[in-house]
User: Which sequence fits this backbone?
């Protein structure tokens, strides 16, 4: 049978070309082909490849996402310092234009690959794939992927990470999960960053942030953390250790 | 604004389907889009107008089917509509432990092709 135009259809294959079948003819004479594939299928395939590549090297990857200025790099700096000599860490930094964050990470003695996304507002699996080939994964335990600061676009793109962590800083407002449901639904863990400021910000209620997250049907833990004072760091580090141990 | 990225990926998929069927043009593209897909239908339409230029889908109509939000409650088992993308609670018991049944789709459902070359010739193109 000719699959292209639906000619010479046997009775057993008639369902293919009937209305709404995978090769149905439409009213205007064109041929309708059923695809049923996600629009980001190519990205998802690349992400699966990244995950397999990381697994072969025994590396666990964490995708770190937040609005700009929520303290992702500061949290990474404190985390790297606390885990020095214990876990071998590397960082992939996504940024629109600068190398500033990568420079900050390298200053802590950890390899960092910068992806300058130009005008792109998010990382995708292909960009991460290229970055992985610029990293020596041998002997590495933990890879952080610091996404572009943005609560919208990064949520849709699987990078091949094992866990997604979303930061919500105390200065942003506790209703962020209600405003950005797609992003916060993607979180395996939500960290309330800059927690040292919570006592002076009377309009930020950690319980309200958690309520808004639960309304998204997410059971992800919501933990306050402060890279500056060290508050909540032990719990975060314990979560990372457990993740690496698998 | 990642709708343009999404549209470029869509055009890539549509071109592959057209090629596989030896079709010269794509007349219609049908997508299923949910409110939790992360894509805004109006922006997708605007981005599509840019992304299709100079491709087999240049003259294609974009048909967006918006799918409803639906959840299934893990506590009481009820399956039904959710109130909003940020209110995915059980419509019966109000519990938050629900599973999304529908609403995050971003799916290429169907492509309508025209100007099809018979497969024997198309295979050599």
Assistant:
């Amino acid at each position: 049978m000719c699959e292209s135009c639906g000619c010479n259809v046997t009775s057993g294959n008639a369902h293919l070309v009937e209305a709404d079948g995978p090769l149905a003819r439409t009213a205007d004479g064109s041929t309708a082909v059923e695809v049923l594939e996600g629009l980001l299928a190519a990205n998802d395939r690349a992400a699966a490849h990244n995950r397999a590549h990381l697994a072969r090297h025994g590396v666990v990857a964490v995708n770190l996402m937040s609005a700009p200025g929520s303290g992702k790099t500061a949290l990474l700096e404190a985390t790297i310092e606390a885990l020095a000599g214990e876990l071998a860490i590397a960082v992939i930094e996504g940024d629109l234009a600068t190398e500033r964050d990568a420079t900050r990470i390298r200053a802590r003695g950890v390899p960092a690959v910068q992806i300058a996304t130009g005008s792109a507002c998010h990382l995708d699996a292909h960009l991460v794939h290229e970055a992985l080939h610029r990293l020596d994964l041998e002997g590495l335990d933990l890879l952080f992927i610091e996404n572009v600061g943005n609560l919208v676009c990064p949520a849709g793109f699987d990078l091949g990470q094992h866990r997604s962590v979303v930061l919500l800083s105390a200065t942003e407002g506790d209703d962020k999960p209600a405003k950005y449901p797609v992003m916060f639904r993607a979180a395996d863990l939500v960290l309330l960053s800059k927690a040292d400021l919570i006592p002076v910000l009377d309009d930020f209620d950690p319980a309200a942030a958690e309520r808004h997250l639960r309304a998204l049907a997410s059971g992800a833990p919501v933990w306050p953390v402060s890279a500056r004072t060290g508050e909540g760091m032990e719990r975060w580090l314990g979560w990372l250790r457990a993740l690496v141990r698998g | 604004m990642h709708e343009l990225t999404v549209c470029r990926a869509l055009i890539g998929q549509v071109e592959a389907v057209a090629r596989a069927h030896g079709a010269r043009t794509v007349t219609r593209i049908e997508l299923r889009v949910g409110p939790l897909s992360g894509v805004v239908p109006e922006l997708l339409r605007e981005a599509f107008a840019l992304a299709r230029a100079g491709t087999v889908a240049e003259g294609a109509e974009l048909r967006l089917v918006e799918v409803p939000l639906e959840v299934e409650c893990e506590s009481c088992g009820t399956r039904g509509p959710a109130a909003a993308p940020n209110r995915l609670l059980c419509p019966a018991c109000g519990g938050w432990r629900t599973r999304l049944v529908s609403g995050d789709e971003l799916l290429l459902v169907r492509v309508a092709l025209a100007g099809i070359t018979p497969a024997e010739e198309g295979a050599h193109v």
